[in-house]
Amino acid sequence: MSAVERSPLRLSEGLVVAAVPAYGYLLAYLYRRGFADELRIPLEFIRVELSDVLVMTVGGLAIGTFLLPFLHIAISIPEVLPNDRRWRLAYCLGLIWLVISGVQFVIYRNHLERVWSSAIWIGVIALSALWSAWSGPPPTIGIFRIGERVAARATMVSALVLLMAAINVHAAGAARALDQRQYLVLPSTDEAVLAIYGQTAVLAPHSDSQLRDRFRLVDVTGLELERREIGPLRPPPERK
């Protein structure tokens, strides 16, 4: 095979390698964003450190390696389904529901009320699509033909996993804010340290586990902090 013929493959591999740290950065940001959204920390304060990207990248690769056999099964299942696009549609919708709702039931195991509404809505949409497909002719839209080719099916399942991973990482950050009990506290002012971005700490006053809508940024260098159990903290009330 000539160099010209091999170049597209090398380009694709190069793009994948370049995309891995970028995706790691996205996951790190979404995790911090989920935590900040839950406690209403201003998004302008969020900073993603190199260590966060490394943790998410290495962790993502490790989890991805662990999930490879399951991805292979997910890609192979349509081969044993009846040769009808409606069955592939049912499989795709069921996989989406399982990856979104199933994982979030684990993430929000202490706050299941946050999952039931989305799980029910996704289920209703999926059942509506299935009823529509089964009551009429087989769907002919291009997306339902993806399952007929293994390579395209592998791409679809991989893209679905990456998308759902991003959604669930954001949920994991929010769940951490809902469950965290111990926080660092500045003894002189009794302010809670909500997050530390680099050398900058985000402080907020609190009373009876209720945050106040006032934040302060301070340099952590030389700062004396205590660890106290003051959580879970509730976000400051929304301003009307």
Question: Would you kindly provide a brief summary of this structure?
Answer:
With 240 residues, the protein is of the alpha+beta class.
Query: Considering DSSP H and I runs of 4 or more, what fraction of the residues is helical?
Result: 55-70%
Shape: elongated
Could you describe the largest sheet, including whether it forms a barrel? 5 strands, antiparallel
**N-to-C span:** 67 Å
Count of helix runs: 5
Order of helices and strands: HHHHHEEEEEEE
Name the beta content range.
5-15%
Structural notes for this entry:
Helices cover 58% and strands 12% of the residues. With 240 residues, the chain is α+β, with helices and mostly antiparallel strands. The protein has two domains: 3-179, no CATH class; 182-229, no CATH class. The strands form two sheets. Strands 6-3-2-1-7 form a five-stranded antiparallel β-sheet, with no helix packed on it. A hairpin with a 2-residue loop joins β2 (191-197) and β3 (200-204). The longest helix has 37 residues, at 3-39. It is elongated.
